[in-house]
Amino acid sequence: MPARVSSISCALLALAFAPPFVAARTDTPKPDDARPSPAELLTNLLARAALVSTQGYRTQFTFTKVRVTEELDSKGKVTEKQESAFEVVPVNGRLFSRLVSENGKPATAKQRKAEEERERKLRAAAPPDPAAGKSPANSKRDYSVSPELLERFTFATTGREIVNGRDSWVLTFEPRSADLPVRKTADRFLNKVAGKVWIDAAEHEIARIEVRLTDRVDLVAGIIASLKKFDMRFEQRRLESGAWFNTLTEASIEARQLVMNKRVHFTEKSGDFKKVAAPAK
């Protein structure tokens, strides 16, 4: 990502919802009966997330990832663009994103050396403990669905839709109140988002999320830094093997930092998934 792209915008992408990235099929579709309550759907979702966090399914696969960050002017014209391609591979019980190219050019010798050093440190680190109940993703961006997160919102089951060829229940959500507690910077953002969640009817995985801001977010004293717009879409797909993977994250951000406005569009796509390892025991 270019140095000129707002660091605040980058951090906000990390603070956005991140559902459990991968799971294996564990149940069968339920009959098309009465619409489930939000409580039932969320209970199933949390149970699924708890199971996935101990399984290490993510590190059974390799895949490719392409990340594009664009800075825009006030008319929406791209003024700066950064495109990075990665090969994602399992290393020591975690996923390692190895830089392959930037802006269409292969990684330089200096970049390859830096990647080799990062990989060496990861191999030397203690492997994750699935029994600890945390995802072995080893990523600061891995903000899983949790009861604490869900308690911030009110939910309503609004219908049923097809997402990527699969039946899903649709939940809408909005902040539970206008006066939610703020214990850390991320709370300022989470307290003012609303949107929709599509939950797979058969396997209780999040198939899609759409998030939007309900109001401006003051991050640092309002004048210094504030977030005026944040629209995000997140999708997961089920592979033939039964695993679920994040395949798309897309966000549009408009923020003010000091006296400058920043407009950023971010896209990250993953594909070419290949299973390379058996489940960890």
Describe the structure.
The protein has 281 residues and is of the alpha+beta class. The chain has one domain (7-27, 36-125, 140-272). It is 18% helix and 43% strand. It has five helices and twelve strands. Strand 9 (217-220) and strand 10 (225-238) form a beta hairpin. The longest helix is centred in the middle third of the chain and has 16 residues, at 109-124. The protein is globular and about 55 Å long. Residues 1-32 and 134-143 have low confidence and may be disordered.
Task: Describe the structure using short key phrases.
disordered N terminus, 5 helices, 18% helix, alpha+beta, 281 residues, globular, single chain
Summarize the helices and strands and which ones pair or pack.
Elements: H1 7-15, H2 38-52, E1 61-72, E2 78-91, E3 94-102, E4 105-106, H3 109-124, H4 147-150, E5 153-163, E6 166-175, H5 185-190, E7 193-200, E8 206-213, E9 217-220, E10 225-238, E11 244-257, E12 260-275
Antiparallel strand pairs: 1-2, 1-12, 2-3, 3-4, 5-6, 6-7, 7-8, 8-10, 9-10, 10-11, 11-12
* Average pLDDT for all residues: 81
Order of helices and strands: HHEEEEHHEEHEEEEEE
Structural class: alpha+beta
Question: How helical, in percent, are the residues?
Answer: 10-25%
Number of distinct beta strands? 12
What is the makeup of the main sheet? 12 strands, antiparallel
Instruction: Indicate the proportion of strand residues.
Output: 35-45%
